[in-house]
């Protein structure tokens, strides 16, 4: 059977993501006016404000607390970089949100915080979930999971592709501050931790954050945030990490049954089922990259999250783990070989089929979209636009199920498909 026929016969699998893109479309990054000590107007697109302008003018709207800033001195950063706490106390029906970011990024994000509709839906989830029995559309409950702390368990059947949790962020912190926790500057470290504490202290709903697990067990905001946050890749303002308290209750599994997705439009994080989840089954995310061998998985969960994974994949019989590791390392070898561009075309076809067969044997449904997009590029480089188009269309089928509708991932794949169709027609 040729490659084209083989591809069309594959079962399409799902692709979750924990790193998500945010487009600040409401407030452009270029505000056209620098911080100057003049009053900041009240609008959905406010001018940047910091501790200096706030103290000079007595005005810091739309923020409900006066900004407090820190000024880390890092050699490879701009000298005047500053990070400030911005709290919007009425967000999420009064639970509030705190941003720890630059003045410019805070002004960009402000416009996304005014829509109350997602807050009502998220609050409804949380209120119902506090009852002893789930009811209506709420299909999970939070309970103690042996060896894991609090986790989420399905109370009703959750269907594949079903969104069953909608959550809003309590904290959003510039990722550069998180990098400083990995390589701390001694004279700034205490100041960094104090500003994290300040960000949470400003929130009326602070208990939702402080009750979350911490990997080191010291219950500081720094540790809680590191253990429970998601990377939010912003188009404007750089990468941030977001803490979504309800979503954060979902525990890790190397072969999860759910994934997280951020909505640019609604500023919410949702949990979506990757497959049918049965009543009584624990709901899980994959905290680490898909497809790693057991030793790499163990290192990442231990080093970055402070626990040793006890999922079924990591506690399988030794002979099963060895076989799985062999397949996963072979997949990595095939990826490197295909990306090298040094393979004869016929060999590339054979290795592509081998890679996809191994990926299906390993159940790497969370990595299939990535595989398809990579292989689209491989066959494009070989000038095989027909098979490049097949892979692009397969990636789009997955993206339509599991990526944000109208988001940058889907629009990017559609653009590639348009280019490839043109090349197929003219070749």
UniProtKB/TrEMBL annotation:
Classification via InterPro entries: SET_dom, SET_dom_sf, SET_domain_protein
CDD domains noted in UniProt: SET_SMYD
Keywords noted in UniProt: Signal
Pfam families found in the cross-reference section: SET
Domain SET: 134-288
SUPFAM superfamilies from the UniProt entry: SET domain
Superkingdom to which the source organism belongs: Eukaryota
Signal peptide: 1-21
UniProt cross-references to Gene3D superfamilies, sorted A to Z: SET domain
Protein name (Swiss-Prot/TrEMBL): SET domain-containing protein
Native species: Pseudallescheria apiosperma (Scedosporium apiospermum)
